[in-house]
Sequence to fold (285 residues):
Amino acid sequence: MKIYPLNTGDFKLDGGAMFGVVPKTMWSKTNPADENNMCNWSMRCLLIEDGNRLMLIDAGIGDKQSEKFFSHYYLHGTDSLEGNLKALGFGKDDITDVFLTHLHFDHCGGAIQWNKDHTGFEPVFKNAQFWSTENHWKWATEPNAREKASFLTENIQPIHESGQLKFIERIENYTANAFSDMDVLFVDGHTESMMIPHIRYQGKTIVFMADLLPSVGHIPLPFVMGYDTRPLITLDEKAKFLNTACDNEFILFLEHDSVNECCTLERTEKGIRLKETMRFSEIFS
Fold:
């Protein structure tokens, strides 16, 4: 097995929305905001090469939305999904599996594109199976008013219409061996049945954090996003996960942290805090 980090682009979101009830004087120490109160965030994915399987975990925001849509998110930088796949020596037709932690637009939008005639949408990865979970699919296709703007029909329905959609079975809150060397933790605070992959790799466990822990700035328990639909459940899920991560020396892969690619945790007098940060390539060097 080989694992490659892959950045699909950078964007901006409001700092207050990203940190909920935490005052700006506290969260701005790790995530400084611009004059519009916007902070920089990455849309970082993982690519797993395992025999004949080439799995992409999440897919970024994509480029098919309108200029007005993108004007809200200040996309910047030179990274792109297709460009960085090519830099690694792969093409979009090489992808066999797309694992979507959840169906918010900044996690799945890059998996769908305009069709050839520009009359509708189709999957970018024509040879891939797309993995979601039944609970979350229902949640996303029958959205509540709070999340409706994050679940875009054009990002979701083409997966079903293509016949490429598959579901991972949720067994309580943890599905062991969902794939070779990968277990899946299910969490419900951010959105229903978000999937957190735990990947066993070279004697270590790499955890793809999705929106359970977007950045190192979110490690303290009260630092919960305003986007979370059930923040009190997030608090409980975070507490359990952080303790497990410390006990097992997990390496956390951070999808949205624009500065830090990976981190580890330690217990302190103030609770569980950041131990160290590193690039993915440094872990196994």
